[in-house]
Structure formats: structure tokens, C-alpha cells
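Kindly inspect this one:
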Amino acid sequence: MRVLLVEDDTMIGKAVLEVLRSEHYAVDWVRDGSAADAALLAEQYDLVLLDLGLPKADGLQVLRSLRARRSPVPVLVATARDAIGDRVAGLDAGADDYIVKPYDTDELLARVRALLRRSAGRGEPVISHMGLELNPATREARLNGQPLNLSPREWVLLEPMLQRPGVVFSRAQLEQKLYGWKDEISSNAVEVYVHGLRKKLGPDFIRTVRGLGYVVPRE
């Protein structure tokens, strides 16, 4: 899953970046409202973690612009503005959730997971398909009831395909899941991870659609 972190405080930004990456999210970090707008216009994200008190453009302005473009991306506002009026303004502007600084990182991650589940149309944390179970909350995987060891990037590549069986993902889409926008991408990275997953899951679990990409078939 790819997250846009919008935070101008260097100390907080570094800490949140480290926590999110430790949970295997691909994260892009920008530090002002103008850069956030540019990133949201140029890239596709699964979630935005948005501060409100930003230089160049306020977070509420970024949020209103995003919703004016009819973008459905989930937005978690994380801010020091703790007044009821601020929370109401954030939610009315289109935020999906609101957390006040200083916050516990475990609560932040739980809210991130909940928003990602909701955006994927799932109420329960466990994703089940063709004998495979992924639990994003605990990062545990099981195949036919047996524990399965997945590397962080295998997990990041597999999870979105498992959430949407039958949907073809292009190589470019999967690369976006694996890397942040400033990371150097190996030319065959997706192929390498797909090959590793097929060795663990079976050769037909992820199928190649020639000229288009990869798909986890419907049962």
C-alpha cells in the first residue's frame, strides 16, 4: 500500500515515516501544501496522512482541492488542532478520520489499517482467497492453514491483488505499490517478486495476462 505523508515537522515526519515503512508501506513524504497538491495530482495513493498547519497551503485547502477533484482516496488528518470546531471542519472538508497530536503510533497504525480495509470494502481484517489468508493487522499469512513466510515486498505486492481478485494490475501499478516515487526501481523487480510468490503459492495463483499485467484469478 502506498501512503502520502504530509507533515512539515521534521522530527514527527521522520518518526512516522520510519513507523509506516516498518509496516511495509511505500511512503512518500512531502512537507508543505503545494508539494502535497503536486504529489496528489501526479501519483496514485491508497491513503493520505495529512497535517493541517502546513506552509504554502493549509491542509484543509489541500483536502478541499482533493475532494473537489472527486478523489476517493482515504484521508487521515493528523494534527495538533484539537478543538471540536477544528475536527468538525476537517471531517466536513472530506477527511475520513481525525487523530490529534501527540498520538500513539499503535493507534495511528490501527486507524490506517481500518481506513484501508474500509476503502477496499472489507469490514474484517483477514483477507481470504483460494486457501490463502492474510491478516494485515498482525502481518501473518497462512496457506491452507499453515504459516507462510512472505517477505515485506512480496506482501506489499500480493495484498492489493488478493483484495481484488479478477482485476488485472499492470507492472507500473505494482511498481507504485513496491516503491516510493523517488526510489530507484529495478527493471525486473515485479517479475522477481511474482516469481518468488509463485514458488510459495503455486504457479497458477498469480497469472500473467500478456501485454497487460498480472491477476489473481477469481475462484
Notes: The helical segments are 10-22, 33-42, 59-68, 84-92, 105-119, 152-163, 171-178, 189-201. DSSP finds eight helices and eleven strands in the chain.
